[in-house]
Structures are given as structure tokens and as C-alpha cells.
């Protein structure tokens, strides 16, 4: 499936909030079709822009605390974190060019 690293409620602080890097968190679930559709696109973006942005995944069914804290009500929800703060939110699956446009500030 995806090559992105998985984060959990237990590791979110260390892996995302405390990271020096810009992190995109893909909030997803196993049963979510659009989540599965966007996963390979995120893998491509990670492969092409991994030096600028790290992409990780958080399963909302297995990690409800973090999903609740960030008010995840629709998935896939992509949130970009920089310095422990959410700096961008993208809701829903999009084609690669649209996602790259949304993330241009972080990957160009």
C-alpha cells in the first residue's frame, strides 16, 4: 500500500508537532475510498519532494484522540504542520496537479 510512515496518538507529538521539518499528515481510514485514491498521489509527491515535505498517515479509526483534537470530520483530510502548527488544510481527494498547487508554498 502506501510508503508513508504511520503516526499514532502516542507518536503524534514527537513525529509531527516536534519535527523540524514541514509535515503533511494524511488523516485517513481503511474503509474510505477517496483516501485509498489519494494515497498513491501522496506517495508520488513524497518521492518527488521528500526533501521539502514529509508525508505521514494517521488512521482516524485507530487514533481517535488526535482526529478529535484537530476536528477531523471529513476524510481524507490533509493538514500541513510547520513548527507544531497547522499551516494548511486540504479536504478531500484531488488529482495530483491540484494537490501540488495546494502544496506549492511548501514544495516549490
Structural summary, described in words:
It is a single chain. 37% of the residues lie in helices and 27% in strands. It is α/β, with parallel strands linked by helices and 108 residues long. A five-stranded mixed β-sheet has the order 1-3-2-4-5, covered by helices on one side. Helix 2 links the parallel strand 2 (22-28) and strand 3. It starts with a strand and ends with a helix. The mean pLDDT is 95.
Q: How are the SSEs ordered, and which strands pair?
A:
Layout: E1 5-6, H1 12-17, E2 22-28, H2 33-49, E3 53-59, H3 64-69, E4 77-82, E5 85-91, H4 96-102, H5 104-107
Q: State the helicity in percent bands.
A: 25-40%
**Which descriptor suits the 3D outline?**
globular
Strand content: 25-35%
Discrete helix count: 5
Number of strands: 5
Give the distance, in angstroms, between the N- and C-terminal Cα atoms: 26 Å
In short:
The protein has 108 residues and is an alpha/beta fold. Helix content is 37%, strand content 27%.
Which features does this protein show?
5 strands; alpha/beta; 37% helix; 27% strand; 5-stranded mixed sheet; globular; 108 residues; 5 helices
Amino acid at each position: 500500500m502506501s510508503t508513508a510512515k504511520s503516526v499514532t496518538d502516542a507518536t503524534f507529538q514527537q513525529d509531527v508537532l516536534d519535527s523540524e521539518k514541514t509535515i503533511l499528515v494524511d488523516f485517513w481510514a481503511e474503509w474510505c475510498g477517496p483516501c485509498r485514491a489519494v494515497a498513491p498521489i501522496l506517495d508520488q509527491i513524497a518521492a518527488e519532494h521528500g526533501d521539502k515535505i514529509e508525508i505521514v498517515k494517521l488512521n482516524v479509526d485507530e487514533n481517535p484522540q488526535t482526529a478529535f483534537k484537530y476536528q477531523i470530520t471529513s476524510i481524507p483530510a490533509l493538514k500541513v504542520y510547520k513548527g507544531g502548527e497547522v499551516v494548511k488544510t486540504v479536504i478531500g481527494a484531488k488529482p495530483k496537479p491540484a494537490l501540488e498547487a495546494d502544496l506549492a508554498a511548501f514544495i516549490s
